[in-house]
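Predict the 3D structure for this chain.
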Amino acid sequence: MKTMVVWTAKPGTLREAVSRFLAGQANSPAGVTMLGRWHSVDLSTGFTLYEFSDAARLYELAAPWADILDLRNYFVIEDAEAGPILAKAFPR
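Done. Predicted structure below.
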């Protein structure tokens, strides 16, 4: 499965978030592959795309950040997967 995690720093925690990130604490645990990570240029939001098969590993990744980041997970699929499903659901 793939999920896009959208994160924002809770008020007053940006410095701590940066510190943890620079210390390498944003690395993925075994079983979770980071496919890409992007940071908004105004430092307000970030986006990380992960692939995993065990949701508990994703939970393991998120738990240490829950005190300073608001995390939202969006399960995603690619166009090649979505197209046939949409064609069936919305026939012409």
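Residues 79-89 form the longest helix (11 residues).
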